[in-house]
């Protein structure tokens, strides 16, 4: 019963992730509400939601998603090259390959001076929205969010730059529960794009 319920929540969450661009946490909580379940209902793990996302993409977006993912990875790479001085790493759905046109781009910057990335945006005349969000290991981290036009998709994509201290880079590359790297540097993203050609 519980595994069936967990699977239903994962599938409902996957629809919200793919169709509305929601993050896994909010999508799982919204799925519980949509299904009319009590708020204390145990939530499926992110791996189960990711599997459901991949199934949803295979069923409903098999033709469009690879094109959209490539466009998002190209845009991410452009931002990584632009912010190269801050050792950018790409994470999230764009890195893992489950992104659609509804997905945002998440870049982690590892800086000698936490204010330097913000100063670089100001120097380039880029307007951004600052915020504080949960980062690595759940600790609060500063984030700078910008809207960036994807010419290929003809939409403005949210690009979120999470500002970390250089020392945080050591623990940031530890493999996830499935043995995959949770994020990749500029060379790794370039390699993903070249493999798609």
Helicity, as a percent range = 40-55%
> What is the CATH architecture assignment of the largest domain?
2-Layer Sandwich
Give the CATH level 1 class of the largest domain.
Alpha Beta
Strand portion, in percent? 15-25%
- Determine Rg (CA atoms, Å): 17 Å
In whole angstroms, the N-to-C terminal distance is 44 Å
Give the SSE string: HHHHEHEHEEEHEH
- CATH topology (fold) name of the largest domain: Beta Polymerase, domain 2
Shape: globular
Strand order of the largest sheet: 3-4-5-2-1-6
Average residue-wise pLDDT: 92
Structure, explained:
- This protein folds into 2 domains: 2-60; 64-195, 2-Layer Sandwich (Beta Polymerase, domain 2).
- By secondary structure, it is α+β, with helices and mostly antiparallel strands.
- It has helices spanning 2-20, 24-34, 46-60, 64-82, 92-96, 116-123, 169-172, 186-195; strands at residues 89-91, 105-111, 129-134, 140-150, 155-165, 184-185.
- Helix 1 (2-20) crosses helix 2 and helix 4 (64-82) packs antiparallel against helix 8.
- The protein is built from 8 helices and 6 strands; from the N terminus they run H-H-H-H-E-H-E-H-E-E-E-H-E-H.
- The mean pLDDT is 92.
